[in-house]
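Hey all, sorry for the wall of text incoming. These are the two entities for the joint prediction.
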Amino acid sequence: MYVAVKGGEKAIENSLDLVAEERRGDRDVPELTIEQIKSQMALAVDRVMTEGSIYDRDLAALAIKQAQGDIIEAVFLLRAYRTTLPRFGYSAPIDTAQMGIQRRISATYKDLPGGQILGPTYDYTHRLLDFDLTEENRNGPAAARTAPEAVNDGEIPHVTDLLNHEGLIQQEPETDEDAPIADLTRQPLAFPAGRDLRLQNLARGDEGFLLALGYSTQRGYGNNHPFVGEIRMGEVSVEIEPEELGFPIEIGEITVTECELVNQFAGTADSPPQFTRGYGLSFGKAERKAIAMGLVDRALRCRELGEEPTAPAQDEEFVLYHTDNVEASGFLQHLKLPHYVDFQSELELIRKLRAEYMARRQAAAE
Amino acid sequence: MPQPSSLKAGYNFAYLDEQTKRMIRRAILKAVAIPGYQVPFGSREMPLPYGWGTGGIQVTAGIIGPDDTLKVIDQGADDTTNAVSIRRFFANTAGVATTEQTEDATIIQTRHRIPETPLQAGQILVYQVPIPEPLRWLEPRETETRKMHALQEYGIMYVRLYEDISRYGHISTAYDYPVMVNGRYLMRPSPIPKFDNPKMDRNPALQLFGAGREKRIYAVPPYTSVKSLDFKDYPFQVQKWDDCCTLCGADDSFLDEIITDDAGGRMFVCSDSDYCAKRRDAGHSGPNPGEAATKKIGEAGDAA
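and here's what came out:
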């Protein structure tokens, strides 16, 4: 007897219950707390905030817990929440020269004003599984030799500013501070995309995709000889200027990672040889993302710098349409939805084409 | 807008805030004014994944009011999981009445089908659209395809259809078959089977198309000409089945093929579950009614 396989309300409810059950896991093991995720899974929280494009450690930790650690699912949860929030205003640009520095390195100068501060980094860890971590140690490791303390001796100049004194690096074009800033969460992408729109897109973009694209430029697909002029990570204050007040007020501090790349450029008939720039910025400690973003930003500036776009990372439409992992993940996974009707249409067609092909062969053989 | 008490706390009627709905309604008005033209809109992240009907959901959320009656179908059926999920979303966030009866609905949101029961003036059919651009497989760049629409430069699509005919003897597009709207814009009807294309032409209902991920809305106003592309010597034709529906005996509806065993056994049933049920209620039956019965997995009761 034929039974039509159609899922109903009940099947969905059962599925939701199973997810909740799996999320909780073994009930003999204590449940994860948001505090634990926030403090001990902080880099996952940073990534979810960056790609979810909202700075809220509690919500990001909640999303990670709810998504059982599936980072892209957590980004989606955060984005779906973000879109319901009202907008009270726009902040003034953050000033990273005033950053309370936790980490600051330059690959172009051995020493420079403000100094190099290694800070917390995996860079010089040996990637040996540390079996000591399998046991919970309530006291934790010995306290750091020097307590990490944010350095902020007034303004710490950017490496690119130092280069700028000599005119060695491309001047960023003057922008009208009152001009509206593109916002792709309100207006769909349009091309050609201005740099503001591109940077917003890249900042929200999937780290894995930008990593691969940035890597491709290093391997010759649109090479532009990057140097890490500077990476700095630390706290910056966020200010808004309410219209009725007329002066800016600080509304809080956020941790950001900023990467400024210094790239080669041969110069053209109109401009002398000079370095060019790529820029990356992420919430929290997301250094890999910030560097990858800088590489792709630089690659996408090819037209502005008179370079012929030939590589995927230089192709504005290709890059900007495919960075968003919430869009990509949804569309990819919609393949799981029923396609009976389309498939039936194809079946009908392919049977007809095959019948005609067989008939032609038959006729040819006779 | 006042909310029935049963609604999800903290969210506006039909989920979206009123400003967003106004933005969507403006896009819809523009789309209706220029039939077949894809209007960019500020598509929002929805609590359902992109590719699962977020465009249709936003259009429905933009137009639905407390007095509306909503029907949601996927593959023609009201009880496929995603249709259930979307209907539940609106039942939760808007508290509107829902129905499975085509003629009782004021708004019908659909994925991949147009109901068999003819639509009436005043009804709105909302399509979920994955890829709105009919020229996309031929030209991946949006900057190019927008230009081609502006110049009404559609030769490339006719060449594609011609190449099909020269290679296979037929146009090998079975669904998402391109149409010309109001003699001006080439339009993608969303992945409905070409069987449904003739229903779009001069339909008394308003047809709205929402593509959430691609951030486009387009429309076919009531009684607008919608012509499937073809050639004089190769006129447009729809699919035909040698069989009829096993359950209701219909030979004029789109049939889904059901595999009944692992030895090539198969049968056909209407993809439009409401249409099929109505015919059976009216006393129609298929060739082997004793052989078949519909049964939903788990409990069939649909709260919506």
